[in-house]
Amino acid sequence: MVAMVEISFLDASDRAQWEVLARGHDAYGGVERGDEAYERTWRRLLDGGEQAIGIAARLDGTMVGIAHYVFHAGVWGNARCYLADLFVDAEVRRRGVATAMIEWVARDAERNGFPRLYWNTLVDSPARALYDKVAKFSEGLVVYTYRREATGDLASAAKRHQG
């Protein structure tokens, strides 16, 4: 039986588990960051002032995935949500965690007036098998979009996430 994926916004008590997964994300991508980068990013995710939002996915109460995203206006006026980071612990991949997080982010974005969700990935990323199922591939670019174009208010959306 597949366990139910529980997703929530990050809160202060998630710090240690978040950092383990954030470092795992970076190691998987071959990125090296100093401790100060994790501290700075954690503060940004919790303060909401820059519209940086973080979520955690849990299976049986254990954090197994993280995602970071931002709402932003498009240059030509189309509001968007950019999924900056998505990572699932290797032990639980292919159990629906990444799909659940993408869908959760898409619903949050739509609720806040930003139903166009997009992200970037490497051309040879194994995750593309999932992305090709849940989103539309943009020819010529490795950019995926989810849902329809819409407008939204960044300031209002940011205020809703500061609570």
UniProtKB/TrEMBL annotation:
GO MF annotation list: N-acetyltransferase activity
Pfam families in the cross-refs: Acetyltransf_1
InterPro entries: Acyl_CoA_acyltransferase, Diverse_Substrate_AcTransf, GNAT_dom
Keywords linked to the UniProt accession: Acyltransferase, Transferase
CDD domains, sorted: NAT_SF (cd04301)
Top-level taxon of origin: Bacteria
Domain N-acetyltransferase: 5-162
Transferase recorded as keyword: yes
Record protein name field: GNAT family N-acetyltransferase
Taxonomic source organism: Amycolatopsis thailandensis
Lineage per the UniProt record: Bacteria, Bacillati, Actinomycetota, Actinomycetes, Pseudonocardiales
